[in-house]
Amino acid sequence: MHIRDITARARRAGPRTVDLLIALLVQSAMTMPFVVPRAPELPEATWTAYGLTSLTVLPLVARRRAPVAVLVAVLAASGLYKFAVDGPGQPLPYTGLVACYTVAELSSPPKRIGVAVLTALGILVSVGLDGEALRELLFSLFVFAAAYAFGRLAVTRKAYLRAVEDRARQLELTHRIEAEQAAARERSRIAREMHDILSHAVSLMIVQAEAGPVAVRTAPERAEGAFDAISAAGRDAMAQLRTMLGVLRENEGAPDTPREPQPALSGLPGLVERVRATGPAVSYEVTGHARPPGLAVEATVYRIVQEALTNVVRHADATAVRVRLDHGPDALTLTVTDDGRGPGGGAGLGLTGIRERAAAHGGTARTGPGPDGRGFRVGVTIPRAAPETQAGRRTGAGQ
User: Fold this and answer.
1) pLDDT at residue 386 is higher than 50
2) What is the distance between the alpha carbons of residues 235 and 320, in angstroms, rounded to a whole number?
3) Which long-range contacts (CB under 8 A, 24 or more apart) does 117-124 make?
4) Are 288 and 326 in contact (CB under 8 A)?
């Protein structure tokens, strides 16, 4: 069995059981000199000597409850055995070492210092009265100092483990909070995306559906175009929703779900054409030196244009709309201007989402009346040098 398994089982057994097992282990070690064959000139292994040996082990059962008292009792019993009984000697003072270790581990600093001094004096007196050489004195001091050092190392190790466990708990809590925040941001992103997709498609379909009966009566050749526009808007919305739901299924364990390309600047002409089919004359202009701003920024610009045109269709009652995209050296500037009813026409319903999308990339969004106070204008500036935030990257991923 691995040593770690033994340690884990001992911890689960409880401190009293562990102390009892330690006492039995020490008793087994101190029994060895009494059972192995001995030379005739060595002291006889009597039952009296063995009983006194067991008496030195017995206090170890209570070593955690009274460490200092146990050490004093062990040293007193050991001294009695050494000077009052002519029994077999022990290669190591097992009981004293365990008691010294326990004092170093569990006692307060004043008690530890006092016990260390008294133990050293006791060793000096014991070796001096026994008349042994300096070698035994140094050996005894060394083993007791080692037991004391191991006790202090145990305290340091436990403190380190507690610190590591506390840090692990804090990291787990931090990760849980971050995961919850990420989930909340993801829910907000998905809600914003679905709002943009459905709002745009439904607005186009409503406009075409309302114009359909009129076209059937007055210009039947235009009615077919209205129905085609409704169908195209529905298919486009379904394709985008299928892409979004496919990404969600992929995150849930369906990696084979097909994924469509994300909305990009290249899709703006088609978006403009679909809105133009609903009635207003929509123009699209690109100026400056076109440089790819990144997939996340492209998707954001597409969604902003989509939301601005949706507001035009639903609220502005405009006849002309101008979409202008300027690739500047330091920033990407987008303006959507119409000649409709202006701010009073209710064009602010999706403006919060536009501002959030621009801010996710370090940009700004300005809205208000168009030139000469007529119509409505949406202006968005996204700096090229600004690093994309996590929210910006999520906006461009999994649309």
Assistant:
1) no
2) 26
3) 119/71, 119/75, 119/144, 120/144, 122/75, 122/79
4) yes
